[in-house]
Write a structure and sequence with these properties.
The chain is mainly alpha-helical. The protein contains 13 helices and 2 strands. It has a domain of 230 residues.
Length: 331
Amino acid sequence: MLEEFWFALVGVLWVGFFVLEGFDFGVAALLPVVGRNDETDRRAVLGTIGPVWDANEVWLLTAGGAMFAAFPEWYASLFSGMYLALFLVLFSLIIRGVSLEYRGKATTAAGRAWCDRGIVIGGALPALLFGVAFANMVRGLKMTPDHTVTTGFLGLLNPFGLLGGVTTLLLCTLHGAVFLTLKTSGEVRDRARRVTRSLAPPTVAAFAVLAIWTVVLRGGIAVAAVSAVGLVALVFAVLSWFAERDGWAFTGTAGAIALLVTSWFVALYPYVLPALGTPENSLTVSDAASGHYTLTVMTCVAVLFTPVVLGYQAWSYWVFRRRLVGSDEAG
């Protein structure tokens, strides 16, 4: 049962990462659109994620660490085939972190412009590549009997993988736009609402197509049910946005992201990595798991420290809950 417990927990950690880091990615990608060329507006946009983005990124470290410790063969097999894609993700996250930290220290407009470019790249590229990676995990990768992935980088750019990437990019960007309407006021909020209006139709369409394709690919009532509820949550978010219920709209986009990621893990089980074309080479939860003692120790540590981490992060969001203003209200 510990193997299934840790598979579910890894899924929960990835859900937390996509939901929390998702709006960070979206806000970063939308910086030149919502912030325009006004420095006060751009500072207001970045101020919405400034206190939380690095804490949200910890969910990625925790999810990756849990995969490495609980399912080392899963982790190794993924890197054997997705090394270049995951390197690009790491590179873009580094660029975003450096740009966010050094933007406030830049003394020239040109320096801030370069930081802004890094922020946009570091927001859009990971949102795209994570979707490509997870979609390919669900679709399956070519593997040898010893679970070495032979699918190259270009092999990841298949129609299903690209649809997964486009869907997560649209969903994270919409999530970020809704977050900005929740956290800002004045002209910045108005721009964020206009972006949300433009993003809503293609996001719902991409989500629906990806959900249907996933059900066709992997089948199962559970996958269909989770995907359907996720689509309902996304539609609910759009309807709440039209009613100017920012909090409910943000809850809806968060729920849609959470259910999309959940559908991936439901579609995967009992595998962690299906083998494309050679099902007998697929990597199962049991095959990939660490020993019983390792999982037992990890469970004890998780039970002790997870509530503390969640409590601290909830407190930080409460402290930085107020709206930020742009240039039209700052004066």
